[in-house]
Amino acid sequence: MVEVELRGWRPDDVPVVLDAFRSPDMADQAARPVDTARAALEWIGIWGFRDDAQAFAVVCGGEVVGNVAVSNIDAHDTGWVSYWTLPRARGRGVAMAATMRLAEWAFLERGLFRLELGHRIGNVASCAVATRAGFLPEGVERAKLRHEGVRYDVERHARLATDRPAPPGLEPGERNGRGRLTGP
């Protein structure tokens, strides 16, 4: 598994944030456009002042290549996980490793019990990140998201503090030849 570090976002990370939100698949992921240095600083700053959320810059090979966050933390010790990586960092397991580290932090440091995440149906890459990070699929939420006037179904995944993470390279629920779940 690729090694990643999670750290707080800093003002000198503005170029990374701008680079990320230039990507067509990221443009609609923020409440307001993130297309100027000021907007990027505001995006970074919002995460520092929320009691119900924490975001981390994902560092791989000494370079910031993405974001992983838990937000909408509620009274039931449940939070919503999100992640993104720069296009050049995709396909290497960075998002999965960062999501696993975030889950560990959320359960051990923040004291959460349940983490949820969702992705548009058809987003195979995001589904792979979720399942490889130990988030089990729970069902489809019909027409949950609306982007540019179009409704999208979302597949919800969840991971509990009592779940064991899947070993690297093994899909949750995958069985060994003896009919048992494999893993430590």
Give a written overview of the molecule.
The protein has 184 residues and is of the alpha+beta class. It is globular. Helix 1 (14-22) crosses helix 2. It has helices at residues 14-22, 37-48, 94-108, 124-132; strands at 5-7, 54-60, 63-71, 78-85, 114-120, 136-147, 150-160. It has a seven-stranded mixed β-sheet, sandwiched between helices. The protein has four helices and seven strands.
Summed up, the helix count is: 4
Class inferred from helices and paired strands: alpha+beta
The overall pLDDT average reads 88
Using DSSP, what is the number of strands?
7
Q: Helicity, in percent?
A: 10-25%
Q: Radius of gyration over alpha carbons?
A: 16 Å
Distance between the termini: 16 Å
The rough form would be described as globular
Name the helix and strand elements from N-terminus to C-terminus, one letter apiece: EHHEEEHEHEE
Main β-sheet description: 7 strands, mixed
Strand order of the largest sheet: 1-2-3-4-5-7-6
The proportion of strand residues reads 25-35%
Uncertain residue ranges: 169-184
Spell out the blueprint of helices and strands.
Blueprint: E1 5-7, H1 14-22, H2 37-48, E2 54-60, E3 63-71, E4 78-85, H3 94-108, E5 114-120, H4 124-132, E6 136-147, E7 150-160
Parallel strand pairs: 4-5
Antiparallel strand pairs: 1-2, 2-3, 3-4, 5-7, 6-7
Helix pairs in contact: 1-2
Compact overview of the structure:
The protein is of the alpha+beta class and 184 residues long. The protein has 4 helices and 7 strands, in the order E-H-H-E-E-E-H-E-H-E-E. It has helices spanning 14-22, 37-48, 94-108, 124-132, and strands at residues 5-7, 54-60, 63-71, 78-85, 114-120, 136-147, 150-160.
